[in-house]
Queue: 3 jobs
Job 1
Amino acid sequence: MDSIESIKELLFQLTTLQIAVAFLVFVFLVIGLRLILKKPPAHLTAFSGEAGSVLVSRKALQELVRSACLLDEWVEAARPVIRVRDNKVTARVELRLTKPDNLKAVCERVQEHITALLQKSLSFDQIGEIQIVVKSFTSETDDPANQQKPTKEETSLLPSAKETPDTTMPKTVEDPLSPDQATPPEKPESRA
């Protein structure tokens, strides 16, 4: 009972402004937590008909967009992020391109591939912005076919195969002349 009376006394001591501020803080906390904890839908409705709806998972849609991006020969890797904003499907795709040449044409082709996939194949009517972010370019030195072979001088500086021990495979068969044995096994003498 004492706690209830102490709460009543505290409420009567507060001004109307303090109560209004406390109420607003509480409302903003509830709204903020709801926005933070709200998960995006796991499935997107591609289209609906009389028989029902066709849903596409977000992961499947990301894989399809990734494969649509890789149709372009200049795209080496793609990482799409699919979102729904204002009932429109939007995509942000990070690309790694093979060369920096024709950047505008490559990005336009990739956007066309994604739009065609979403509109024609999956029947998404509401398509929003398709944002392309070029993250990197593959350097020519990364390609093993373009790497130069070491010169004779460079190979002479490298340790030879005889000097480097083979540590990739353990010994499974005992070597009769291994360093573990002090003397080689004796051969029986033959008398002729």
Job 2
Amino acid sequence: MGVDKPFGCTLYPLSYNPKNKSFYFDTDCPLMDAYMHELKDANSDASLHLNTMHNSIKRLEKADPQFLQRNHEIDVGYFELKKIPALHSTTRQNKKKSPL
């Protein structure tokens, strides 16, 4: 399928909850430990994936928020999910700029 695969497949093994704006990970995925460890490195494949998904999510929140809600509902019904802590500024929500 390459780059033309459905967004839900590209997002996997992550799931995004639009209500609390958090990412979750499918605990049955054998890559979970490595993915979580790699998130500590902003230049890792996992961080690149998470940041890419975050940018796609921001566009979908404006274009098709119902899709995000439906996709997460399906994920909750199918996967065992674990919340991913926001580790990088690009994944944090509502970050305030400090006045200079």
Job 3
Amino acid sequence: MRLTNISDESKGQLDAGFEAERRLMADDQRDVHACRNLWRSVLERTVDDMHFLRNHVGTRQLKKHEEERLRRIRENPPAEFVQGAWFEQICDYLQVSPERLRRAITEQEASAA
């Protein structure tokens, strides 16, 4: 866009405004990217917790940190989370089909068992 008939001071203010808007848009994209990474990590942790639960349930010789993790997983079962509304909202935010992801998780768990 070429601007004519404006003073150097006005042009400087306009350029500063464009630069501020560009930075805000970049910050918004950074926030969106960070949010997407956070929710992706939540889903990855859910799958990891399901594996941990399957592999460690019934194990008698657990280390203290493994016992604590197992207790936390049992308090908030990942299988219940996968069937819940939060899971669907996260999938919607990530633009991933909740049904397809559930099916993939179920198939992965079945093949690992």
